[in-house]
Structure to design on (266 residues):
């Protein structure tokens, strides 16, 4: 009994202080990790970094600090952390390979947040989809189409292809092609198109609009009409101009050719 008690006291004298020290290292280290993580998030908020990316970086910082603290606590107990780190690295590699697609989406999400090819509220064409951006998170981008459907696109699909941002610039050019018959008055049609463009207050004076004959087609003489507008006015000007041209051409007896088929009987 004395031998067993002496053994227990001997073990406690050797490992007791180390155990208490490891507990203190873990407890105090965890508190310090939370403080440092909170400090880093505040710094990112002051830098006006996107909330999504600041949260992601904060979680990474806290996780890395926590791993370091656990290793320090184990090392204080006399545990060989070298083999532990090797096992942890192998496990991390296995997890990384298993979630390769997910990790690529996270990486792409970070790039989208940092480089800002588009923002929430922009109208874009990305990964073959057109719509308004509603949300950008670490895994995917949420877009709303013109007919009010929500589309969720993996970030890796967006970052690897061309991105067209229709909202990035303040102005856009509206392009039209209008055809008239060969027997119609060319000068009258050109003057009419210019008057329609000039009468629209949404069309900018600078850069100047353009109305030119661009093609002598098989069944029509085609005009190319180009007008600069504010990006927000693009579709309004586009649809209104097409309607106005049709109504005005009808009033002035300017024809708009359409395909016809002549059938002859012997």
């Amino acid at each position: 009994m004395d031998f067993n008690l002496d053994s227990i006291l001997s073990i406690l004298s050797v490992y007791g202080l180390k155990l208490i020290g490891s507990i203190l290292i873990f407890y105090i280290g965890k508190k310090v990790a939370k403080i440092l993580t909170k400090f880093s998030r505040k710094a990112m908020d002051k830098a006006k970094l996107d909330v999504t990316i600041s949260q992601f970086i904060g979680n990474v910082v806290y996780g890395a600090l926590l791993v370091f603290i656990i290793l320090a606590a184990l090392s204080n107990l006399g545990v060989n952390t070298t083999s532990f780190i090797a096992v942890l690295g192998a496990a991390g590699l296995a997890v990384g390979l298993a979630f390769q697609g997910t990790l690529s989406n996270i990486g792409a999400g970070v790039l989208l947040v940092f480089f800002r090819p588009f923002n929430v509220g922009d109208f874009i064409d990305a990964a073959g989809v057109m719509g308004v951006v509603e949300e950008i998170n670490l895994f995917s981008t949420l877009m709303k189409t013109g007919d009010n459907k929500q589309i969720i696109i993996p970030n890796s699909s967006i970052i690897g292809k061309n991105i067209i941002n229709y909202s990035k610039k303040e102005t856009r050019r509206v392009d039209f092609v209008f055809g008239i018959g060969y027997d119609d008055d060319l000068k009258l049609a050109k003057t009419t198109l210019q008057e329609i463009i000039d009468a629209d207050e949404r069309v900018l004076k600078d850069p100047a609009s353009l109305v030119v004959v661009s093609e002598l087609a098989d069944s029509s003489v085609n005009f190319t009409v180009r007008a600069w507008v504010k990006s927000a006015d693009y579709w309004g000007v586009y649809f209104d101009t097409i309607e106005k041209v049709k109504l005005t051409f009808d009033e002035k007896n300017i024809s708009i050719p359409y395909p016809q088929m002549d059938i002859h009987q012997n």
Observations:
- DSSP finds seven helices and eight strands in the chain.
- The CA atoms of residues 153 and 251 lie 48 Å apart.
- The helical segments are 2-46, 51-76, 81-98, 100-115, 155-159, 186-199, 234-251.
- The mean pLDDT is 82.
